[in-house]
Every structure is written in structure tokens, then in C-alpha cells.
Amino acid sequence: MPREYIVLVAGPMGAGKTTAIAALSEIPVVLTEAVNTDQARHAKATTTVALDYGEISLGDGDKVRLYGVPGQDRFDFMWRILEKRSLGMMLLIDNGATDPLSDLERYLHHFDTLGARSALVVGVTRRDQGGTPPMEAYHARLGRLGRVLPVFSVDARNAAQVRTMLGALIAMVEAKAAARAHAGAVA
Ligand SMILES: Nc1nc2c(ncn2[C@@H]2O[C@H](COP(=O)(O)OP(=O)(O)O)[C@@H](O)[C@H]2O)c(=O)[nH]1
Ligand SMILES: [Mg+2]
């Protein structure tokens, strides 16, 4: 039977959420950009205020529904609704931000409830614009937090790179489902 995955794309403003969804999607992405009233935090003319939506088929009729969730805390309620339905999350972190490691920690904390049930991969973007902090710093921070997560260096504009990351996420989703089925079988 064809399966359907709901995948959230989260991360701070400017991390590449909309770009990644557009790079992956087979349908024209439903964009909900609006004038950015928070120029102090990020010098972007527009920003996502509701959600971005895209779709990608995986073969065998399986389909992924991609939702870009807003980066600003004031849209918290929407994150809560969507995370209940999602199987996995791609968390994008802008390597060029002031403190990307704190961003990583903050977003992981924010999506704590997603943890056990759902799969999560981290994508570090904008590494073409500067290599600091290095990838090891992300691994070190995750280690300190006791989290075992794959971390990818990705350019959100590069469809092949984003697809590779999505593939890893789907594999994690399936591994978790198999582990749950096994736990159910032995219980
Ligand atoms: N150079 C570079 N630009 C990127 C990368 N990822 C995203 N961008 C650009 O960053 C800008 C903001 O991306 P956007 O998708 O709007 O971020 P969002 O706020 O998370 O939805 C866009 O102009 C993207 O083309 C990257 O890895 N490298
Ligand atoms: Mg966006």
C-alpha cells in the first residue's frame, strides 16, 4: 500500500526552508511569504508567516508532504498542530548566523515532544559562505545534549543534496517503525 509521510522543515529565518522545499517539490510550492517586519533579526524582504507546502513522490506511489514551519516563536501554535501529524523533521541551521550552535540547541529543545516517536535530521546550510563553525562543532554540541542525529552539510538550493538528506530521514522513519513493530510483537 502506498505510504504517505509528513515531513516538517524547520529552522530559523533565512536557514533555507522555503528554498529546500522548492528544490524538492514536484508541484508548484504553495508559498506564504509576507513582508518581513522583523528586519532587526534578519535582513530579508519577505519571510514565511504561515507555511510553505510541497510534495515529492518516492516511487511505488509513496509520497512525502513537506511543510515549512515558520521560524518565529510567535507562530508557536502552528508548530504544535503540525508536529502531532509529522513523522519526521529536517531541521535547517544557518551556519552564517550569529550563534548557529545555540540555534540548534534551541530548536531541538522546542521540538522535544517530537523526539522519540519521530525521526530528525539536521542540515547545516550556507557553509559555502564560510566554514565556521565547523561540522565537528555541531556533533560536539549534539553529543553534549545526548542526541544521536545525522548532520548534513547542505546547500538548500541544491536539489540533490536536499534529496539525500530527505532519503536519510525516510530511512530513519522506517527504522523506527520497524523497531516499534518489533517491540509490539515481543510485548
Ligand atoms: N549561499 C547560500 N544561500 C542559501 C543557502 N541556503 C539557502 N540560501 C539562500 O538563503 C535565502 C533565504 O532562504 P529561504 O529559503 O527564504 O529561508 P527560510 O526563511 O528558512 O525560508 C535564499 O535567498 C536562499 O537562496 C546555502 O546553503 N547557501
Ligand atoms: Mg521561508
TrEMBL record:
GO terms for molecular function: ATP binding; GTP binding; hydrolase activity. It comes from the Bacteria. Keywords: ATP-binding, GTP-binding, Hydrolase, Nucleotide-binding. InterPro entries: Gliding_Motility_GTPase, Gpn, P-loop_NTPase. Pfam families: ATP_bind_1. Gene3D superfamilies: P-loop containing nucleotide triphosphate hydrolases. The keyword GTP-binding applies. PANTHER family: ATP/GTP-BINDING PROTEIN-RELATED, GLIDING MOTILITY PROTEIN MGLA. Belongs to the GPN-loop GTPase family. This is ATP-binding protein.
